[in-house]
Amino acid sequence: MKTLATGFILVSLVLAFYMPFVVTLPKTLAIPKKLQEAVGKVIVNATTCTVTCGLGYKEETICEVGPDGVRRKCKFQRLECLTNWICGMLHFTIPMGREFELSCLSSDILEVGQEAFRFTWRLARGIISTDDELFKPFRTNSHFVRFEPAREFDSGTYRCDVQLLKNLKLVKRLYYGLRVLPPHLVNLNFDQSLTEDQKLVDEGLEVNLDNYSRPPHPAWKKDLASALRVGIASGVAGGVLLSIALCSGLRVIYSDNSLTRFKDWRPKDWLFRKSS
């Protein structure tokens, strides 16, 4: 009985050792004939999204590929794509009293049609920030916010959310940082500080800027430099004249003191004294 038990254990160990090798032996699988003749649709070419944020489009070429690897019935399709719906912030600084407009429209929205989108505006008044907890609803359903004219009270951050009407999917969020400054606080005339060559470049003309010269100094700087030069020259001349006057005065004082001491020192009637 003991011998039978020992033999059974040995046989079990041998089977347990060789069973994985038996299971993993390579076998030739028979592929069904219908599967061998199957044709699949494969994307053979695709472009990146046309925009880096917001709703964009990508182009794909799809072909049917059979077992022989030949492409057949290829077709081109254009699909919507959304890489990132947060589009950052744009900054604007304008003088008070100027007409201005913020718009959420872009080329991708215009291509579909603005009627397919819903625009929602929110405002964080008096602060430039992207913290969504600071924003409060701003009453407008249009794709733009117009200021006629802009007031200092209008400064702040405006947030525009764009959604698809068919499923209310958020496809774009854009922040606008707006600063409205009093006209006497700062001069926003950028063109005034440009040279003639820089103005031509700004207009789109090709100009050689190798011999770039600095923009001319304003008139008040020239007047200040002239006044400083005149003041320095006057100060130097006044110092020289004062030094000459002091030297002359000291000479007169010292000469008078010497004469007085000589008179006090000499004996009386020393000129009429005879020698014995």
Can you lay out the helices and strands and say which pair or pack?
Elements: H1 2-23, H2 33-36, E1 40-46, E2 55-65, E3 71-82, E4 86-95, E5 100-103, H3 107-112, E6 117-125, E7 136-138, E8 144-147, E9 156-164, E10 170-181, H4 196-202, H5 219-265
Parallel strand pairs: 4-10
Antiparallel strand pairs: 1-2, 2-3, 5-8, 6-7, 6-9, 9-10
Question: How would you describe what is shown here?
Answer:
With 276 residues, this protein is α+β, with helices and mostly antiparallel strands. It contains 5 helices and 10 strands, in the order ααβββββαβββββαα. The strands form 3 sheets. It has a 5-stranded mixed β-sheet with strand order 4-10-9-6-7, with no helix packed on it. Strands 1-2-3 form a 3-stranded antiparallel β-sheet, with no helix packed on it. β1 and β2 form a beta hairpin. The radius of gyration is 47 Å and the shape is elongated. The N and C termini lie far apart (177 Å).
Mean pLDDT: 76
Largest sheet descriptor: 5 strands, mixed
CA-CA gap between termini: 177 Å
Task: Name the overall outline.
Answer: elongated
- SSE string, helices as H and strands as E: HHEEEEEHEEEEEHH
Tell me the strand percentage band. Answer: 25-35%
